[in-house]
Design a protein that fits this description.
The complex is a heterodimer of chains A (190) and B (332). Helix content of chain A is 31%, strand content 26%. Chain A contains five helices and eight strands; from the N terminus they run αβαβαββαβββαβ. Chain A has helices at 2-12, 20-37, 52-66, 120-130, 176-179; strands spanning 17-18, 44-49, 72-77, 108-116, 137-145, 157-161, 169-174, 183-188. Helices cover 33% and strands 14% of the residues of chain B. Chain B is built from ten helices and nine strands. In chain B, strand 1 (67-72), helix 2 (78-89) and strand 2 (93-98) form a beta-alpha-beta unit. The chains are: A alpha/beta (190), B alpha/beta (332). The A-B interface holds A 78, 80-82, 86-87, 91-92, 94-100, 127-128, 131-132 and B 20, 22-23, 41, 44-45, 47-52, 55-57, 59-62, 90, 317, 320-321, 324, 326-327.
């Protein structure tokens, strides 16, 4: 209790708002690292996790394409049906379609999500992927890593690494395509 | 029972929920009790489940470890198979129970049978029963979820939903469409579920049949009742031909098969007067040559097999939603 109180005080002194230019810069950092890690001439499948991971994946794919990556495959996963914590996250999220019209076998695959927290949606995404095929390797890129893992899962590419955010805070990633503007907010859960 | 702070009156379940609707119903008993928003939510969820059946591994772990019992007290091929397949695509365990060869033939009541099945740790009972209201009775007597797979002449909600889904898929909308439901309306649970669903989503429903099989009482449910098929055949967007249910019809209601076909069958001649893009549906099983001509059932305007395909997605959505409805939610 003492330590969680300490971390709360520590947290309140931290930055809680990242604006559009911060988000932009964070994504560019991610793209830089991806461009080094993968080869432009080889196939790379980029799969976003609904909802904001889908948009991030789209942005990363476009940015990589403009850097000469010519063999990018794209897909979208809805992991709701693979989650193990449905009874714990309150109102059930709407199940939305998964779009995997590509062959994911034998090529590297990049999973993209907005926030990495417990690791449970990534576990669910990996379970879902195994129903579609066997990629040569699966890598994970996230815009924000907020700590708080409940599973042995880590991201390979992290845009913004926050020190462990207390569980009663929410890291809210907003993206222009659906939220009107780019922004990252760290706010108390309501 | 008087209502006070500890015992508030039950919420009005028909009130349309907010836009960010979460599914809270633990049973699916009727379409009459669902709001338009809930119907849309179900149809949208079904759309997501369509994709699962297109994968090479046609299975998701959503209901792993859950048990679904198909309790069918009436014959059925399509509905039972569809529910079984839907449950197994969600990774649930499926048990088929039928009246024949069970203790029901020894005189056990429906509720006792169901409670015994439930005592084995069942999560969902899918019930098909010849008595109207059977699913409702069962839902009140068991703790698990109940899905109505047809109760007498009352409702067949998943058939209604798959018809709505198929119409929406074909036209991109439901509101504003003119839908004719033709044949033995009085004995049809499919007609009732369709009527409720279509009205809630804004379609115009025309019921067509001989006066003996189409009582005027249906007008009070918001449908137009017509005894002359030819008078509306050229105006409608969708024609849903019902099966002539020989097992339910008393002979006095029904003069002869030939006369029925001549007046209310979708024959080649009658079909020629329909709109060019009219959508022809039938809940099955078809009496070819009686209510529907073979060439029409198999023709390009027919959505009959699409209905069956969509039925699977709709039933996956229903099983998924009812079994995940939160425990704290009050019953229906």
């Amino acid at each position: 209790l003492f330590f969680s109180g300490l971390s709360r005080i520590f947290w309140l002194s931290m930055r809680t708002v990242y604006d559009a230019s911060d988000v932009q810069r964070t994504i560019e950092t991610l793209v830089d690292r991806l461009a080094v890690a993968f080869s432009p001439a080889s196939p790379l499948n980029i799969i976003g996790i609904r909802t904001r991971g889908e948009i991030l994946a789209q942005r990363l794919a476009l940015a990589l394409a403009s850097r000469g990556f010519s063999r990018i495959g794209r897909g979208v996963l809805d992991v709701t049906l693979y989650r193990d914590d449905l009874s714990e996250i309150g109102p059930k999220p709407m199940v939305r379609p998964t779009e995997m019209n590509i062959d994911i076998n034998a090529h590297p695959l990049l999973l993209v999500d907005d926030v990495l927290f417990t690791g449970r949606s990534i576990r669910a995404a990996m379970d879902a992927l195994s129903d579609f095929g066997r990629p040569a390797a699966v890598r994970l890129a996230v815009l924000v890593d907020r700590g708080g893992r409940e599973l042995p899962i880590q991201a390979d590419f992290v845009g913004l690494k926050l020190p462990d955010v207390p569980g009663d805070y929410r890291v809210n990633v907003k993206l222009g395509e659906i939220d009107g503007r780019d922004e990252i907010l760290v706010e108390p859960r309501t | 029972m008087p209502h006070d702070k500890l015992h508030p009156p039950p919420a009005d379940t028909r009130k349309a929920p907010a836009a960010t609707l979460a599914w809270t119903r633990k049973h699916l008993l009727t379409l009459e009790s669902l709001s338009a928003a809930e119907l849309e939510y179900l149809l949208n969820t079904a759309q997501s489940f369509r994709e699962v059946s297109t994968r090479s591994i046609k299975k998701v772990p959503a209901l792993r470890g859950r048990v679904v019992v198909n309790a069918f007290f009436e014959d059925s091929t399509r509905t039972r198979t569809s529910f079984s397949l839907a449950a197994s695509r969600l990774s649930a365990d499926v048990i088929d129970f039928s009246e024949k060869g069970s203790s029901v033939s020894k005189g056990e009541t429906l509720v006792d049978t169901a409670r015994n099945i439930e005592a084995m740790g069942v999560d969902v009972i899918v019930l098909r029963h010849p008595a109207s209201g059977a699913a409702e009775v069962l839902a009140r007597s068991v703790k698990c979820s109940v899905v109505n797979a047809g109760d007498g002449a009352h409702e067949h909600p998943t058939q209604g939903l798959l018809d709505l889904y198929t119409i929406r898929e074909r036209f991109g909308k439901i509101a504003g469409l003119k839908v004719a439901i033709v044949g033995d309306i009085a004995n049809s649970r499919v007609a009732r579920s369709n009527l409720w669903g279509l009205k809630k989503l804004g379609a115009e429903v025309i019921l067509v049949g001989p006066p003996t099989l189409l009582p005027r009482a249906f007008e009070s449910l918001g449908a137009r009742c017509v005894h002359d098929f030819d008078s509306i055949v050229s105006q409608v967007d969708v024609i849903n031909m019902l099966r002539v249910q020989f097992e339910r019809i008393r002979t006095s209601q029904f003069p002869s098969v030939r006369e029925f076909t001549r007046l209310f069958g979708l024959t080649t001649e009658r079909f020629a007067r329909c709109k060019k893009d009219v959508f022809v549906m039938h809940p099955g099983p078809m009496n070819r040559g009686i209510e529907i001509g073979s060439n029409i059932a198999d023709g390009p305007n027919s959505g009959i097999l699409t209905q069956v395909t969509n039925g699977l997605a709709v039933r996956m959505a229903v099983l998924y939603l009812v079994s995940n409805a939160t425990a704290e939610t009050q019953r229906r």
